[in-house]
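I have a small job for you when you get a moment. Can you supply me with one protein entry, sequence and fold together? It will help me judge whether the discrete encoding reads sensibly. Write everything out right here, beneath this request:
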Amino acid sequence: MAEKDWENSGDLPIGMLINDVSRHFHYAVLTEAEKVGSRGGYHHILHHLEHKDGITQLDLAKLSHLKPPTVSVTLKKMETEGLVTRKADVSDLRQVRVYITEKGKEINQLIGEKILEQERILTESLTDEEIEMLKQILTKIRNRQKTYYIKGRKSHETH
């Protein structure tokens, strides 16, 4: 009996299909970001700093869904590369605030362009209506997943 070609059969479970598309998109963005001088993971941090410059390291970890030690190590590398600066909060010396530099803004802009380029590649075979429908469906799935995850996590934490 011949094995089924899951990837091309249309029978791949939705979660696996979403993961597969996400993985390929993420890999393409990382590859392109490295070409403009960014390492993996930098774009999430730079993106958040571009919108909330001067936030604390802890808040940055929460926003980026990374563990605080991971953010700390990454920020140290980014600081060495001149992409960010870290300064103690004058009103609370226990807090460290993170600021994006001009070089960081330039890299973030280039990464943003690469993300848009990859998105164009991703959607070039879709009509405008299909793109809008896909956004609506994925948003609905994401919102349901967030709601389910948050409820599940809270119920586990109380037991």
Summary: The first strand starts at residue 84 and ends at 88. The helical segments are 6-9, 14-35, 42-51, 57-64, 68-80, 102-123, 128-157. The beta strands are 84-88, 96-100. The radius of gyration is 19 Å.
